[in-house]
Fold this sequence. Notes:
The protein is α/β, with parallel strands linked by helices. Helix content is 37%, strand content 18%. The protein is built from ten helices and 13 strands.
Amino acid sequence: xxxxxxxxxxxxxxxxxxxxxxxxxxxxxxxxxxxxxxxxxxxxxxxxxxxxxxxxxxxxxxxxxxxxxxxxxxxxxxxxxxxxxxxxxxxxxxxxxxxxxxxxxxxxxxxxxxxxxxxxxxxxxxxxxxxxxxxxxxxxxxxxxxxxxxxxxxxxxxxxxxxxxxxxxxxxxxxxxxxxxxxxxxxxxxxxxxxxxxxxxxxxxxxxxxxxxxxxxxxxxxxxxxxxxxxxxxxxxxxxxxxxxxxxxxxxxxxxxxxxxxxxxxxxxxxxxxxxxxxxxxxxxxxxxxxxxxxxxxxxxxxxxxxxxxxxxxxxxx
Length: 318
Ligand SMILES: NC(=O)c1ccc[n+]([C@@H]2O[C@H](COP(=O)([O-])OP(=O)(O)OC[C@H]3O[C@@H](n4cnc5c(N)ncnc54)[C@H](O)[C@@H]3O)[C@@H](O)[C@H]2O)c1
């Protein structure tokens, strides 16, 4: 395949690039504006003739139209990485989530590129507590602009696929973690503890409870589901099926960093920031029917990703 990876210098996109380039039949074009992406994650491929990097913004439609020429499968990972920032910049997710996705699919339409895999998230379901949401759950009432932009992008992808004979795979991921993280709770805790190993400020009351899935499991799911399913728009939840709290995450980080006697301070309240969903539960029946199951539990994925981040200079020094 000739893959076009938006956000390919970011966490999940760069890991997907590493995976795809291993197959000599694949060519890769990365399209990234480096707002959170890191050159260090992809520079090892720069001299590979099957790899091309284009520095560009999805908000620049003529540039996307040019860049995507000749590609046959799009992996769409680019998005606003800072969910809480919508409190001070309310149109951020509208631009980087919705408009950027429209431009991408429009560029696909104009260049006859037919297939797209999109990384959506649990934010589309809103705050529904312990309800295990299946893919057909509704009404979908997001509580953040990030969640709203995921839902808006799903809708645009679906509409354009139906109107112009394209095909989409939409993945609603749990929290994704792994070596190349550029943000996230474990990543934040490592950074804070490197600065001050005596105390740790935890957003909320620490009881927020979610699924944390390793990026290797996520890539397996994307590749398996897109190979095994063939509807016009295929929507799948992807999570571990078990859950871990923020305080438990802090415990794992502290153990892996070999620290002792760290004092936890909580900002208080049930959620980390306005728009955060404190409890997320997924129904995974649909993806399990295809034979997919995560290799790692939430705790195993966390331990693995913390070890990987601690051993990776690019992650923590930039
Ligand atoms: N990491 C998670 O826990 C998680 C969970 C569910 C869904 N997702 C989704 O998966 C995707 C990838 O997430 P990630 O964790 O790898 O994020 P990331 O921030 O590491 O990567 C996003 C990449 O997109 C690039 N980018 C952002 N806006 C752009 C634009 N307008 N034009 C070109 N490039 C742009 C950034 O520079 C970055 O390299 C996102 O859509 C995210 O919403 C992530």
